[in-house]
């Protein structure tokens, strides 16, 4: 007889905390390219940089070391691929939050 089912992909489908949901909905209302120089683009850039600062404070890091990606696969690829493909040897990191 099989035991209880173990669901191991919770990170991809976990419900958002209420505060995270509120922040995400507010961010989705900012319809601008954060790389643009017009006022709307600067507002979008400010939103991203504030989020970067908040994450840095949360994990005790510098904001310039916080990189946003679309998910774990992109994060691992961004971090590891350049050195691995170029044969630069061992990749060392102090923390990786996914």
Describe this structure as you would to a colleague.
It is a single chain. The chain starts with 9 loop residues before the first helix and ends in a 13-residue tail after the last helix. The protein is extended and about 55 Å long. It is built from four helices and no strands. The chain has 98 residues and is mainly α. The chain has two domains: 15-66, no CATH class; 68-98, no CATH class.
Number of helices: 4
In terms of per-residue confidence, which ranges show pLDDT below 50 for 5 or more consecutive residues? none
Query: Which series of helices and strands comes N to C?
Result: HHHH
Distance between the termini: 35 Å
The secondary-structure class comes to: mainly alpha
Mean pLDDT: 83
What's the gyration radius in Å?
Answer: 18 Å
Main beta sheet: strand number and arrangement? none
Into which percent range does the helicity of residues fall?
40-55%
Number of strands: 0
Shape descriptor reads: extended
Brief overview, please?
This protein is mainly alpha-helical and 98 residues long.
Task: Describe the secondary structure blueprint for this structure.
Elements: H1 10-13, H2 18-28, H3 39-59, H4 72-85
What labels describe this entry?
98 residues, mainly alpha
